[in-house]
What does this fold into?
Amino acid sequence: MISPDQFRVNEAWIAVRINEEFLLVQDEPYDIYVLVDAASCYVLGHVLSREVDEAPKEKDVKDLFQAAFQAKNQWAEILILTGNSPSDIVFRKQAEQEGLSIKIVYSSDLEPILGPLKESFASDFMRSSTYRDRE
It folds into this structure.
């Protein structure tokens, strides 16, 4: 298991899909990918990706990394990926362009960091989205 106390702030970022079920945006299915600081669990930003595209667009990931850099005024040293997502290729490419090393871990090992975020997303965002759809 990987926990926040194993990192310094801005030492490692995690790129991962946050939603378990796709989101409908104007009747099209989307996934949400987030970039998270491993130490603080701070969400640096997110990108939407159409489910049929399987991965975010390179431009969107580049913009996400640039926004994270601007927020932190430095690059992380490591990008953590799960290695089992089609989006990993796009995130890996951008990270390597910015000089970050890549670490592949099991998604279950990220539970202490991402579990609360995923639970909050599922209960707050997905519930309110479902509620609005019923109105």
The first strand starts at residue 12 and ends at 17. Strands lie at 12-17, 23-25, 28-37, 43-50, 78-81, 101-104. The chain is about 35% helix and 25% strand.
